[in-house]
Amino acid sequence: MIKIIAINGSHSGKKGYTHFLIEKLFKGSIEEGAVCEEIALAELNINLCKGCGICNTEKHLQKCIYEEKDDIAMIFNKMREADIIIYATPIYVFNMTGLMKMFLDRMNATGNSKDFRLSESGLFFHYINKDIYSKPFVTLICHDNFENESSKNVVSYFKTFSRFVDAPQIGTIIRRSGKLTGYGKDKEKEREFPKILESHKAIELAGKELVTKGKISKRTQRTANMDIFPIPFFSILKKFKWFKEKALEKMKLNSL
Ligand SMILES: Cc1cc2nc3c(=O)[nH]c(=O)nc-3n(C[C@H](O)[C@H](O)[C@H](O)COP(=O)(O)O)c2cc1C
User: 246 C-alpha to center of ligand 1: Å?
Assistant: First the structure.
């Protein structure tokens, strides 16, 4: 039986859009027999890595000063048992949330920076605890802006993460325009932008594919990540400033 855990880095915990999207993904996976669990970091006690370096001394190697004092060990144990990990984060000022980064920083204490290794991609790195780090993973991102550029830093971060820690990246879900489409909670907005329903359905299918194919297919990912505007060729048109200027004028008129 496949076990999937989602680390939800949203500061809104299980009340936000990130949670809604995780549930969509899980729905598909559960239908295919997977066991799924969401870990909402906002509900847990996670200390900020102090950078004290004690976890890298001989006497306390791989032992964090916060071990057994917060919930990190519990999360790492769940990661050890999982077959697939979903790193889910909203965009906060062009990046992952502080909470998600705080969590990822704590992984550093499970490594040994003096024990040099080469990653499978041929990058210089050091010993890492592969039972925690090196799991197939999906990045799930949501944000309000329409621009693909908004999530660029997080997409790039997880590409780098994958290459250093030998963790195969098996999908990237990016759901833009969350506010415009009502965060999965506003039927009126869903009627106005019906493509959002298609996207949410594709996220369910992505959950199924994780179990049946071991990854999200390119086609499903494209549908899940699509622009939701009911304007033909919007994805191409939005590359042009003149089009955006016209769209902006219309948006301003509509909000008068
Ligand atoms: C502090 C903060 C910063 C944000 N920065 C961005 C941003 O740079 N780009 C964007 O598109 N949305 C941004 N947002 C909007 C969130 O990404 C969006 O509302 C998301 O759906 C929140 O997820 P949640 O409902 O799970 O909390 C920001 C929200 C907050 C609270």
Answer: 25
Q: What pTM, to 2 d.p., does this model score?
A: 0.96
Q: How many residues comprise the chain?
A: 256
Closest to 141 in 3D by CA, of 185, 171, 105: 171
Cα gap 67→74, rounded to integer Å: 10
Asked if 85 and 79 touch (Cβ cutoff 8 Å), the reply is yes
Q: Which of 21, 93, 100, 149 to mutate to test the pocket of ligand 1 (most atoms within 8 A of CB)?
A: 93
Instruction: Say how far apart CA 64 and CA 49 lie, in whole Å.
Output: 9
Domains of the chain: 3-225 (3.40.50.360), 231-256 (no CATH)
> How does pLDDT run across 57-114, given as a tens digit for each residue?
988 888 899 988 999 999 999 999 999 999 999 999 999 999 999 999 999 999 998 8
Measured between alpha carbons, how far is 7 from 85 in angstroms, rounded to an integer? 7
Determine contact, residues 9/98, Cβ cutoff 8 Å. Answer: no
